[in-house]
Design goal:
The chain contains seven helices and 17 strands. The strands form four sheets. Strands 1, 2, 3, 4, 5, 6 and 17 form a seven-stranded mixed beta sheet that branches. Strands 8-15-9-10-11 form a five-stranded parallel beta sheet, covered by helices on one side. Strands 12-13-14 form a three-stranded antiparallel beta sheet, with no helix packed on it. A hairpin with a 2-residue loop joins strand 13 and strand 14. It is of the alpha/beta class. The chain folds into two domains: about 200 residues, FAD/NAD(P)-binding domain (3-Layer(bba) Sandwich); about 110 residues, FAD/NAD(P)-binding domain. About 25% of the residues lie in helices and about 25% in strands.
Length: about 325
């Protein structure tokens, strides 16, 4: 799986080597279209950057692509099993992957897209954007957010042993982080805008966090908002007034969003809604820009929990069927 598979014009360039980008490559290969899958990081880069102990919400068969069975040891697979599975898929299909190569610019000359990266130049008849949303965290927007102690990504609990940790958020990521760091010896405080833990939290985890909060083992301030971060403290507004807490780390599990600027640079237009939803044909997943297709979570704009692996795998089939119709 080395770089520069084709010097001639490709039928399609796929940007994003996550599960949906891989599914698009598999469908292209089945249809005998020439393609390459680019990613600025490793294979399934977002899954690689998930917390090390993460367990998926979905069962393994819902994460399958390309007809390759995904067998996990438990009813719901974990991160390590998923990485192994998608490596196996890439090898089984001998996918044409160009990893660690960021696409820097795409222009259109006539009917062809000119694709520039730091390592080479390519051209193709069509583009598929399957970039996910994990690279751009929502910022809290408070003084001190740029301090080294503030983390928007979480890896594992060990570094927080014996530390005073503030967790921001009330969804799955925040709850997982609060419970994991608490169990590895952190003093955990949650600051939550809502009045309760979100209903969307995994059903087998929700009672655990609610019990820890009820017992006082994890402190939670609901209807509250972080207002300032300093090297040794945080400040927050709560229903009982402003508070200052001693603090070593802030784990801001506030979610992530797609790279809209990249879509805009390709001429993709958006609906006039609060979610910045891309305009696309649901029968083919072609965007408002000719021969630019979108697949996976980017189709939902800011609603990043609308499209998952299990319900967007079909995007690959729709897109490649449309390309076959056009190019054959």
């Amino acid at each position: 799986m080395s770089n520069h598979f084709y010097m001639e014009t490709l039928d399609v360039v796929i940007i994003g080597a996550g599960p949906i980008g891989m599914a698009c490559g598999i469908e292209a290969q089945k249809a005998k279209l020439s393609y390459a899958i680019f990613d600025k990081g490793c294979l399934v880069n977002s899954i690689y950057n998930y917390p090390k102990g993460m367990t998926f919400f979905s069962t393994s068969e819902k994460l399958e692509i390309g007809g390759v069975p995904f067998i996990s040891h438990q009813s719901k697979p974990n991160r390590v099993e998923a990485l192994e599975y998608y490596r196996r898929v890439a090898t089984s299909w001998q996918l044409k992957l160009i990893l660690y190569e960021k696409i820097e610019n795409i222009t259109k000359k006539g009917e062809l897209f000119q694709i520039e990266s730091a390592k080479g130049n390519y051209q193709s008849k069509a583009i598929i954007i399957a970039t996910g949303f994990y690279d751009y965290p929502y910022l809290i927007g408070v003084q001190g957010e740029n301090l080294p102690k503030v983390k928007h990504y979480y890896d594992e609990p060990h570094p927080y042993f014996g530390q005073k940790v503030v967790v921001i958020g009330a969804a799955n990521s925040a709850v997982d982080v609060a419970l994991e760091t608490f169990r590895k010896g952190a003093e955990v405080t949650m600051i939550i805008r809502e009045d309760k833990i979100r209903e969307s939290v995994k059903y087998w985890v929700r009672p655990d966090i609610e019990n820890r909060i009820a017992s006082g083992e994890i402190k939670a301030y609901f209807n509250s908002e972080l207002t300032k971060i300093t090297e040794h403290t945080v400040e927050a507004n709560t229903p009982d007034g402003s508070i200052t807490l001693e603090n070593d780390f802030v784990l801001a599990m506030t979610g992530y969003k797609p790279d809209f600027s990249f879509l805009e640079s390709l001429g993709v237009q958006f609906q006039n809604d609060e979610f910045h939803t891309p305009i696309y044909n649901e029968a083919s997943n072609e965007s408002s820009a000719a021969n630019v297709y979108i697949a996976g979570v980017v189709c939902g704009g800011l609603i990043t929990n609308k499209w998952f692996i299990e319900n967007s795998r079909v995007h690959a089939e729709l897109i490649i069927a449309d390309l076959v119709r056009k190019f054959r």
